[in-house]
Structures are given as C-alpha cells and as structure tokens.
Amino acid sequence: MLEVKNLRKEYGGLTAVRGISFNLQPGDIFGFIGSNGAGKTTTIRMISTLLEPTSGTAILNGAEIRRDPMAVRRMLGYMPDFFGLYDDVKVWEYLDFFAAIYQVPVKQRMSVIDNVLELTDLTVKKNSFVQSLSRGMQQRLCLARCLVHDPQLLLLDEPASGLDPRARAELKELIAELGRMGKIVIVSSHILPELADFCNTVGIIEKGELLACGPVGQIIQGIGSARILRIRFIGTNGELKHFVEGRPFVQEVELAGDGELRVEFTSDDVAQAELLKEIVSANFKIIGFREEEADLEDVFLKLTTGAVQ
Amino acid sequence: MIGQWLRTNLGCYVGNAATVRDFRVQLRGNRAILLWGFYLLVLIGFTMIVYSSNSDGSQTSIVNAQQSLRSFYQSIMILLAVMINLISPALTAGSIVMERQRRSLDLVFSAPVTAKYYLVGKMLSSYRYVWMLLVLSLPITSACVVLGGATWSDVISAYIILSFNALIYTAMALLLSTLSRQPVAAIIWSYFAAIAYSIATATISGSAAVMGMSGMSRTLEAPFIITINPYFVVQAAPTFTKIYGYDVPNWLLGGLFAILFSKIMVLAAGSAMAGFAAKETKSLRIHGLIYSFLGAALLAYSVSPAISMVRSATMRGPGSTVTATGWDSGMDLMFGWLLGFLVILVPFLSCYGSDTERKYWADGLAKIRNLLIGSPSGGLPYILLMILAVYGGIALVHTQFGMSSPSLAILFWSLSFWAFMWSLGRFSSSFNLGLRAARSLHFTLMMALVALPVPFFTAMGAFSSSNSGIWDIYILRPLIGSEDNRPIAWVYGLMMLAGTLVVTYIAETNASRKGVLQRYAS
Ligand SMILES: Nc1ncnc2c1ncn2[C@@H]1O[C@H](COP(=O)(O)OP(=O)(O)OP(=O)(O)O)[C@@H](O)[C@H]1O
Ligand SMILES: [Mg+2]
Q1: From CA B357, how far away is CA B1, in angstroms rounded?
Q2: Pocket flag, ligand 1, residue A11 (CB < 6 Å)
Q3: Sheet containing A250-255: which strands, arranged edge to edge?
Q4: What pLDDT score was predicted for residue B491?
Q5: Hey, which of A174-178, B100-104, B171-175, B450-454 has the most confident mean pLDDT?
Q6: What is d(CA A112, CA A105) in angstroms, rounded to the nearest whole number?
Q7: Per residue in A199-244, pLDDT tens?
Q8: B positions 235-254 inside 8 Å of A (CB)
Q9: What is the pLDDT at residue B317?
Q10: Domain extents for chain B?
C-alpha cells in the first residue's frame, strides 16, 4: 500500500508540487493526469526517492522514502519520461546489470531476464545491442528493466510516448496485467484517452495541486454538476429551442447542427423524464433524446480551465 | 552483523555490477585491440628511439653500458608516468557526467544502489583499464631487467607506485566528473587537476628525493612523499622510511596515501550526488577532519625530523647563521602554507544559494550543530575545526620528537585569516546570483587578495631596495620572510578578525535587504 502525504517540492522560488496526498492499494492502476509542467514528473521522482521532498512524505508498505530509501527502492520500479541507454551493451547484459544491482541471485538471473523479455515481447532482441533498438523497443526494454526484481510499485512516467498504436495497445494490456498481479501502478500522461480505459483510479494535477483524485466513475459523477442532453427532432429550429429554454432546470440551450439541440440540464433523472414528457406533449417531433456521457476529458477540461494562466 | 558489513563492503570492490558491465564494453570488438595495438606501437617506437640514442658510439667500459641501461630504464618509466598522467583522467572524466547527460543515472539510482557502490564501481573500471595498459608495457620493462638496467624488485615497486598514482588521478577525475555538468568541462578540469597535482607534488617529491639522496652515503631512506608523484618513480622505488626501527618500503606508505586520498575523493563525489543532510556528507566531513589531522601528522613525521637533523647539523657547524627562532618560524610558515588547500574547500563551505536539493539554502550564520550536515551554517565551525585538526596533527608529532609546535600566534592568524575568507563567501552569496556564481565570485575575490598583489609588490620592490617594505601590507605577510613573524602574526590576526566582522556585517545586511535569507527561512 502506498500512502502519499502532503508531498511538497520547491525549486528555489518556484513551488512545483504543493502538498499532494493520496492512497493506493495493491492492484490499483492510478492515472496521473496533468498538462505540461503540472508537476507529474516531480511527484513521481519524489516517490521514487530520486528527489528530496521539501516537506511531506510517502510510505510504501511501511517504508518511508526519506528514512528508508533503500527499502523503498527495492520495492519499486521507475521508468523515467526521458532516459538513455548505454552504448555497446547488449539487451541481456543491460538487464543483467540491473538484475545485479537489484541483488537478484546469480543463479536466477538468466531465467528472470528471459521472463521479463518474454513479458515485454523482446525475446528476439536478446542479443542485439541496445542502441540498435527502435524507440518503442527501448521503451519496452526500460519497462523490462523495471520488472527484474518483481516490484510492488511501478512508477511509469509517460510510458506510451513514442509508441505506435499497436505497441500502445500492448502496453495497456501489459499494465492491466501488472495490476491484476497485485502491483500498484502509477501511470502519468497528458493524453487522456490513453488512461481512461485501463486505470481504475485517476488523479488530476494542475499547477502542483491535486484537483481531484479517486475512482474514475466517482470523479466523473462528482464533477457532473450539469448533464448534457442531446435532443434530435424534426421541424423548425427556433420553436423547440424557445420552448426548452422556458423549462425548469434548463441552463443553456444551443443548436448543435441541423435538427439537434444541446441542452445543459442541472437536475436528476426524474426531472429529465419530466422534461421529455413535456416536450412530447407539446407536439414536437422528437426522434432522439439522450444524455451525453461525460468522460475523463470533460472532467479534465472542466477542472483545469481557469487554472491555466 | 560483521558478515553483513563485510558483504556490503566487499560487494563494492568485488563483482561490482557497474564494473562488470564496463568490463564487457571495454573488451568489446576491435576498438580495444586497435587501441592496445596503437599503445604498444608508441611504447615500442619510443623504446627503439631511446635505446638507439643511448647505445650509439662504441661503449668500451662496463660502467658506461650500465649507465646507459639505467637511463634507458629511467626513460621508459617516465614514459609510463606520462602515460598514466594523460590516460587516467581521460578514462575517468566522462564516467559520471556522460551518464548524467545521457539520463541514465536516474535508472541506476532508483535501484537500491548507494552512491558509494556506483562510484567505486566506476572508479575500479577505469582503474583496471590503466592496469591493463601497465601490464601491456611489462615486456618492455622486463627487457630492462634482462639487460641489466634494473632489478625485478625495482620494476615491481615502480609499477606499484605508478598504479597508485594512477588511482589518485582516477579519483580526482571521478570527483570532477561528478561535479561537472558538461563532459568537456569534466575532461578539461580533470587534466587541469592532474597537471596541478603533478606540479605541486613534483616540488614535494623532488625535495624529498634530494633529502633522501643527500649526504655522503647515498642512503635509500627518504620521506614517503617521494612516491606520490609518478615522475619520480625510479628514484622512489627503492626507498623506505624508518618507522620504529623497521624499514617500511615507501611504496607501501604511498599506496596507503593513495587509497586514503581516493577514498576522500569518492566520499566527496558521493556527497555531491546525495541530497540534503545525507549521511555521505556527514561521513565526508568526519573523514575530512580525521585526514587533515593524520595528513598533517604524517607530513610532519616525514619532513620535520629530516629538517630538524639538517638544522642541528648546520647550527652546530662553523659559521652557522640559522638560529632557533629561525627554525621555529620556519615551522610556522610550513603550517600556514599547509592550510593553503582550504582555498579549494572554502567556497563550497561558505557560499549559499538556491539549488534543487536545498543543500545550500541559507540557514543562518554559524551553527555548531550543523557542523557535519553540510549546510552553509556549518561552514565556519567546520573551517575552524579543520585548522585546529591540522595544528593538532603537527603538534602531536612535534611533541613526540621533542620539538616545539607551531606558535599560537600563527594559529590565531590562520583562524582569523580563514574566517575572513569565509566572510568573503558570505559576501559573494549575499547578492543572490546563484550558487555557482557565488562560488566563482568568492574564489575570484580570494585570488584577487592573495595572488594579484604579488606581481605588483614584486615590481615595486624591484625599483629600490628601500621599497621592499611594501610587502608589509601583503595579506599573507605573516607567511613570508625569514625573521621572527610572531608579532606580525598577532597584529595581522587581529586585523583579519576585524575584517571578518565588518565583511560579515555587510554581507548579512546586504542579504537581508535583498530578501535572500528570508526566502529560504520558511
Ligand atoms: N530541476 C528543476 N529546477 C527548477 N524547476 C524545475 C526543475 N524540474 C522541474 N521544474 C519545474 O517544476 C514544474 C513541474 O515540472 P514537472 O516536470 O514535474 O512537470 P510535468 O507535469 O512532468 O510536465 P510534463 O508533462 O511536461 O512532463 C515546472 O514548472 C518545471 O519548470
Ligand atoms: Mg513530466
């Protein structure tokens, strides 16, 4: 279990992270969303013990990042957003090096290396030089390196950047698999659709502050102060718009293309049914009436507008 | 418990993962073979030239032949000294800074690896490469033995001395590699340091060599510091030091010195890589104090008895002008100049400014409890304690030999002089230019005070002999001249103390006016 408590980082004058707190359980896949410069990398580097927090702390399975960094490091695998590989080193030697510094016993190393290569689909490249790998393969190799010691926590900073769609899909599958194995996975990204379908928890960070954090559904609901209704109809535009505008709980109505209205509606299901009934009884010809599903992107945009300066 | 400790410590040196990985790379492909081939070619070519130039003409006498073989051996050894002086920094300078540039350090340090483990691994892999090159040259030097220019024991101790010197160069380059941001800067600084080290130790080793070879009986007893410069390897190889009646070979003492030296370099590099109040910093600071004490004691041990012997010989001799006070003030000068190494440390100890790890954020003027933390407020106590440690080391040895310690006057002057230097660091930092800029400014200020007047005063003094009094206003006045400097040291010490107070006051008001101190206080 990972507890992040009031983590804060100042760089001289600038405060990059302003007191972030959240808890994660084994099996959680945490999507860490924020625009450029929001503080994702800084937070992840603090949890990975590479950066000293100005204040606050994080505790991984009882080990504190400041007091016991070595114990924390043994339990985590960190994949940075930018990283370099060594020249003139073969893929298996590269992994062997990391297995050695993670103190994997010599006898098990070869089988561990074969396993992680299998998992990341790099088995055919075992004897290639790392600098000859493509960007996506290097990315996967870095992920493989994070796995040699079977960590409890994976910190993946924008793991999908530079991957082709197919590799992305495979990466998602791999991350989901790691979650099923009971690991805590933190994935940062600013590409939202990438995270939505396999994270079960998300945190939205903006200017160093965690604006929302929790299970995906809960966040979307929590933010949904106004639901968006889409009404398709036959007939003239003006009349129906005028009619709907007069109904209760309706905030804003706009025409969305020909024969479709977009309505911001601030009440619950019962009122929504009532609205439909009224429209139909007023003899408008309705061919579609649906609530637009709010997604992570809406939530993100909603939460972060205004915060962007 | 002990087994665990042994395992973690031995693990650094045996089968270090970084060394294993570098080894695979070093031996990979044609590059290594090409490099070694080229190296051997240079070596053999040089040997041929030296040999033919030595053996031309008809040598009839055995003594002549012997002489030329000896000088042949000497040239080879000097060539090897040049080689390690040039190759060790080049091999090591890139090791850390290149990884930082390539962004591969984060990968390593997110694993349970201590800075020490990785640094030692890196150091060993370049050091081993130097060894490989040394071993490759063995056929040529053994030719000398076979031909009769040297003995096996000469050659072996010479190789050991060379390799320890290589370790010193390697360790310096490793530290500079950790401190640099650009590989080019690391290489330049490493060469700079290696050359500065060679020149500085050449004077020491050279005088030690003279001391060892002086006298009618060409004794092989010499101060061990003869071994800490590679260019004196031939002279140093057969020497020894008498310690409590035992003849301890100097390569052993030199090796000990090299190991301690490289240890302090690795500790410094580790401390530079670690965060705020890390235990690496604490360890470095403790080692720094102990080593200053031991180093001063060792130096006093190896130099003072010899000087003392020379002195008593000359004082007893007819027409002697050396007086007891002259001797004592000589000891004072030695102590004062010995502290010169602080000039490199003081900018790191006294300047403050913002950095990402809050290691150097201003945290007050001087706090004894921060002595070992590494934060700027511990700077002044640490500087003063280090001076006391050096003094203590010399004083200890001198009482052992029944000689007098450096005077309290010079101790007082040293403490207030370095406190003044410290206050210049506070002053440089108070402009809030950034940490690096503050350090550079500090160093420049110190140099301006110490080095800049020298040519000026020299020129002034050259015009007329009555003008030589101009040196009286030189800041290092208590460290020059041959007469009794103690009254001058007291006066100058008081002046330095006053200067410290004034500059510190200006620095702190300047800093608080600029809001530098408050920003970090919260
Ligand atoms: N070493 C540093 N020194 C000073 N400021 C820094 C440093 N590293 C990061 N910052 C600042 O901290 C803030 C957060 O940066 P961070 O890298 O955490 O953002 P991010 O969310 O990872 O952005 P991106 O999506 O671009 O990767 C930025 O304003 C950045 O300029
Ligand atoms: Mg980032």
Answers
A1: 33
A2: yes
A3: A250-255, A260-265, A227-234, A285-291
A4: 93
A5: B171-175
A6: 10
A7: 888 898 988 999 888 887 777 766 656 778 888 888 776 788 888 8
A8: none
A9: 47
A10: 16-54+63-273
The pTM assigned to this predicted structure is 0.86
In contact, B479 and B333? CB cutoff 8 Å: yes
Fold of A227-293: Alpha-Beta Plaits (3.30.70)
Cα dihedral across residues B186, B191, B195, B201: positive or negative: positive
CA distance A269 to A252: 18
Phi-psi label, residue B316: left if phi above 0, alpha if psi -120 to 50, beta otherwise: alpha
Give alpha helix (H) positions in A30-151.
40-47, 69-75, 91-101, 106-119, 135-147
Tell how strand A250-255 and strand A209-215 pair up. Answer: unpaired
At residue B476's C-alpha, the angle toward residues B471 and B480, to 5°, is 65
List the domain boundaries for chain A: 227-293
pLDDT at res. A30: 93
CB contact under 8 A, A73 and B17: no
CA distances for B376 relative to B202, B280, B373, B420, angstroms: 35, 16, 9, 15
Is residue A41 within 8 Å of A92, Cβ to Cβ?
A: no
Inter-chain CB proximity A97 and B275 less than 8 Å: no
User: Rounded distance, CA A239 to CA A248, Å?
Assistant: 17
Instruction: Give the integer Cα–Cα distance in Å for A221 and B233.
Output: 79
Radius of gyration of the CA atoms of chain B, in A:
25
Looking at residue B404, the DSSP 8-state letter turns out to be P
Nearest one of A142, A99, A143, A141 to A122, comparing CA atoms: A141
Residue B55 has pLDDT above 80, yes or no: no
> How many CB atoms are located within 10 Å of the residue A111 CB?
9
Which of A48, A49, A101 is the closest to B108 by Cβ? Answer: A101
ipTM, interface predicted TM-score of the complex: 0.82
Average pLDDT value for residue range B509-514: 86
For residue A242, CA distances in Å to A227, A245, A270 come to: 19, 5, 22
Contact predicate B173/B192, CB 8 Å: no
Q: pLDDT by residue (tens digit) across A15-43? A: 899 999 999 999 999 999 888 889 999 99
Record the tokens describing residue B450, joined without a space. 């110490």
Partner residue opposite B17 with nearest CB, options A50, A100, A149: A100
pLDDT of A126 reads 93
Read off the pLDDT band of A294 (50, 70, 90): low
Compute the distance between CA of residue B308 and CA of residue A187 in angstroms, rounded to an integer: 71
